[in-house]
Design goal:
The complex is a heterodimer of chains A (247) and B (499). Chain A is α/β, with parallel strands linked by helices and 247 residues long. Chain A contains nine helices and nine strands. Chain A is globular, with a radius of gyration of 18 Å. A five-stranded mixed beta sheet of chain B has the order 3-4-5-7-6. Chain B has a two-stranded antiparallel ribbon with strand order 1-2. Classes of the chains: A alpha/beta (247), B mainly alpha (499). The interface between A and B is medium-sized, with 35 and 31 residues.
């Protein structure tokens, strides 16, 4: 298992953002669904080793992120796209991705090829030498994805990766996620249920800091049969599960 | 992974940081400030290495300080401002190495620009100076000063990453410079020496005696200590951030040790500076002082003239012929009289009354004196500096010539203590004026009214007496002076007694 979470909690003052989450995941694409404030981003940040859990046990890639040396090993094998991507406007696309490849301690000899592959993977080959300040929001999002995948991560954490992407790019990105999920664990936090339906092998639905559903997209769809609100079957499953959890 | 590959990674990160540093965008502004403040100031000084080098710490550091601090704070706050904190926090490279690369990228440009400025100053001086070589201690102090403000600014930026941190840090350094660290420490105290901002040294500093590096060493130690402390504080702060990660357990004790070492270095420098005392050619700090450096520097003076020889330090050699032409006529007027100098020679200003500043304080300062057997007119660098200062040449040749002539004649007709302060008696003033007129110079007498002459004759009365004396034949003047010189020197001759 690449992700092993046991009764994980995270508090920010009086607010409990994550309240006793237990989760295991191996290779594949795991969609993390939930309403605003459900705790998806906080859970992702804990798995990205940005913030430590308040309590509970977490093992990533069979390592303990609480231990310095093991945390460093995890980070070498980690890709992360935060919800709000910060960037350095003066860097070019290639430089920005190369910078993160270097920070991820990739072997220098592998970096040029890996950067080129990441740039092509998000279809930014024509903009490789463009400065980030000249790119549109959707292109910046793709740069963020490229820096996350440049080290061919064993654990890829993506927070709202398709936000701002046009339909064509969204389709391409789903294909990319499926490819990555064949050899590594991809966790995608999203509001867009169609992304989950198209790319995820599993889905976890969070509400109020807890996971209230865990299964395949098909199982979530079934939960919405004759229940729930929504235009698509998956949306109906989503709303039905939430309604049940809150009742 | 090979060692070469490991070494290439930080080098590549550093290259990216250097390429994307904001400093180059501000370099034109720094260059303009350097030209108007530092370069032009230095150009106004004589081409004496030590004097020219004084602008490095006194002006150049001021030009660079605010920019260095502001730009470093800007670089230090980058991750916070650009909201990349989460993104970089998930990378394996320890935060301190990442931050070190950003700081190094900023420092690279600033130190490079600073050294380029020093090179401009030194190349210009090398083309004009006739003696000596470039002093390196002011450069070391300047570079350490730039590094120190960079470290302080960067630490402020990293700890308080806001858009206002950089301008506030720059303004703080500017105010500190304007108010003056010297003033903050108390200018009368030796602790003020810790400030790299100094006054212009005597014009012959470093010519006759080596300027001791004691104060420079203390300054480097003091600022170096602050730098190490700032870096230690930053590293310590990183260890308390989980997201900084990757730093290992060793970073916290190392950071604490850095803070302790930095504070200790600065405190030691502070303590050492408190023991500073005036030496032969500057401030000596006993614990750092090398007594061997107090020996005079050997040099072969540049001399000119046959009947009346004028000797200058070779650093002022370009002025030799002008000075010989100036002194020759007045020397001829008094030739053969008791105590009349047979030679003029430049001596170290520091030799007089145990040091220039102390001499000024006690009133024992003398610019020139006639001494020895046979008598020699000795003048020091302060007098020379006043007249040989601008490198671009003699601005007022007549006034320049008259100044030297007056210096020689006042030393001849007055007691040394009188001549030193310009408090010469009216009759002495009149004689000096008359002798200068006889030598076809425009007299500048009375130079000033001393305390003892305030109630005495007016300037027109002195001028009238001088005119009367000048109207005598050279032989008559010579004869009168031969007979009355002791009384004239003692101040016992009145204007009315002058023929």
């Amino acid at each position: 298992m690449n992700i092993e979470l046991t009764d994980l909690t995270r508090r920010f003052g009086r607010n409990q953002a994550v309240a006793g989450v237990s989760l295991e995941a191996g290779p594949g694409v795991l969609g993390l669904l939930g309403p605003n404030g459900a705790g998806k981003t906080t859970l992702l940040r804990m798995m990205a080793t940005v913030v430590p859990p308040s309590s509970g046990r977490m093992r990533l890639l069979s390592r303990d992120p609480g231990a310095h040396a093991q945390r460093r090993e995890i980070r070498r094998r980690l890709g992360y796209l935060p919800q709000n991507l910060g960037y350095y406007p003066a860097f070019t696309v290639v430089e920005f991705i190369e910078y993160f490849a270097l920070l991820k301690e990739m072997p220098p000899s592998r970096i040029p090829k890996a950067v080129a592959a990441a740039v092509e993977g998000v279809d930014l080959g024509t903009k490789a030498r463009a400065k980030l300040r000249t790119l549109s929001g959707g292109m910046l999002r793709r740069v963020g994805i490229a820096q996350a995948i440049v080290n061919d991560p064993e654990l890829l954490l993506l927070d709202e990766p398709t936000a701002g992407l046009d339909p064509e790019q969204r389709v391409a990105f789903r294909t990319l996620m499926r490819d990555l999920g064949e050899r590594s664990t991809v966790v995608v936090s999203t509001h867009l249920v169609e992304d989950v339906g198209a790319a995820c092998t599993e889905v976890a639905l969070m509400d109020a800091g807890q996971i209230v559903f865990r299964g395949t997209p098909a199982e979530l769809t079934v939960r919405g049969k004759d229940h729930g609100i929504g235009d698509a079957p998956l949306e109906r499953g989503y709303s039905a599960v939430l309604a049940a959890a809150r009742s | 992974m090979t060692a070469v590959a490991l070494a290439r990674r930080p080098a590549r990160v550093l290259r990216l940081e250097i390429k994307h540093s904001p400093v180059p965008w501000v370099l034109p502004l720094i260059a303009a400030l350097f030209f108007f403040n530092t370069y032009r100031t230095a150009a106004g000084f004589p081409a004496i290495w030590t004097v020219r080098a004084s602008v490095i710490t006194d002006h150049m550091l001021f030009d660079f300080g605010a920019f260095a601090c502001g730009l470093s704070a800007w670089a230090g706050s980058r991750e916070g401002r650009r909201k990349t904190t989460d993104l970089v926090a998930t990378t394996a490279r320890p935060a301190w190495t990442r931050q070190a690369a950003v700081l190094a990228g900023t420092m690279f440009w600033l130190v490079l620009a600073f050294l380029a400025g020093v090179a401009v100053l030194y190349v210009q001086t090398a083309r004009q100076a006739t003696w000596g070589g470039p002093p390196l201690w002011p450069v070391a102090v300047g570079v350490v000063g730039v590094v120190t403000v960079c470290a302080i600014g960067f630490t402020c930026g990293a700890l308080f990453p806001g858009r206002f941190t950089a301008p506030l840090a720059a303004i703080a350094v500017l105010v500190l410079n304007m108010v003056g660290l010297r003033a903050a420490l108390g200018s009368s105290s030796p602790y003020a020496l810790l400030s790299p901002a100094t006054s212009v040294p005597p014009v012959d500093a470093g010519l006759f005696y080596r300027v001791p590096p004691d104060v420079a060493i203390a300054q480097v130690m003091f600022m170096g200590g602050i730098t190490v402390t700032a870096v230690g504080v930053l590293a310590l702060a990183l260890t308390f951030r989980r997201s900084a990660g990757g730093s290992g357990r060793w970073l916290r004790p190392v950071a604490a040790a850095l803070v302790a070492a930095g504070v200790a270095a600065s405190a030691t420098a502070f303590g050492l500076t408190g023991t500073a005392k005036q030496g032969v050619a500057g401030w000596d700090i006993p614990a750092l002082h090398d007594a061997a450096s107090d020996q005079p520097i050997a040099y072969a003076p540049d001399c000119a003239g046959t009947s009346f020889q004028v000797c200058l330090h070779p650093a002022f050699g370009s002025y030799l012929s002008d000075m010989a032409v100036a002194l020759d006529p007045v020397a001829a007027e008094i030739a053969g009289l008791p105590g009349a100098p047979v030679r003029a020679e430049e001596v170290a200003s520091a030799l007089r009354a145990g040091g220039f500043r102390e001499a000024l304080r006690t009133g024992g300062f003398q610019e020139s004196v006639i001494t020895g057997t046979p008598p020699v007119f000795e003048f020091n660098g302060e007098l020379v500096g006043n007249f040989l200062g601008p490198f671009w040449g003699i601005m007022d040749p007549a006034g320049w010539r008259a100044g030297f002539q007056q210096g020689l004649l006042e030393a001849f007709v007055a007691r040394p203590s009188q001549a030193a302060l310009g408090n010469i008696a009216p009759a002495q003033q009149a004689v000096v004026t008359a002798l200068m007129s006889a030598a076809s110079s425009q007299p500048q007498l009375p130079r000033q009214d001393g305390p003892g002459t305030q109630a005495g004759p007016s300037r027109p009365q002195i001028a009238a007496a001088a005119q009367r004396f000048a109207a005598l034949s050279p032989a008559a003047r010579h004869a009168w002076l031969a007979a009355h010189l002791p009384a004239l020197r003692a101040g016992h001759i009145t204007l009315a007694q002058l023929p």
